[in-house]
Design brief:
The chain is of the alpha+beta class and 86 residues long. A hairpin with a 5-residue loop joins strand 3 and strand 4 (35-38). The chain has helices spanning 54-62, 65-70, 76-85, and strands at 9-11, 18-20, 24-29, 35-38, 46-51. The protein is globular.
Length: 86
């Protein structure tokens, strides 16, 4: 009997599709209410995931996906950081 490792799936806040966690960019809200991009995927805090495509980023800005996930207003510089990392 062979056991296959379960692939963790996360939902993109832009397009709403479920994708493997490794394919997505993790955006993190720290305890100090700071929004950062978590490249390791292991930092403490509330995470939201977004596809690494400009299209999904623009969709998430339009539908306020990150703002809904974190229940707070997201500054434009965070979106600029994300645009730079895609």
């Amino acid at each position: 009997m062979s056991f296959t490792k379960k692939v963790p799936m996360r939902q993109c806040v832009g397009c709403g599709e479920m994708k493997p966690k490794k394919e997505l960019i993790r955006v993190l809200k720290t305890a100090e209410n700071e929004i950062i991009i978590d490249k390791t995927g292991k930092k403490n805090g509330r995470g939201a995931y977004i596809c690494s495509s400009r299209e999904c980023l623009e969709k998430s800005i339009k539908n306020h996906g990150l703002e809904r996930s974190f229940k707070m207003k997201i500054d434009d510089y965070v979106y600029d950081l994300l645009r730079g990392s895609i």
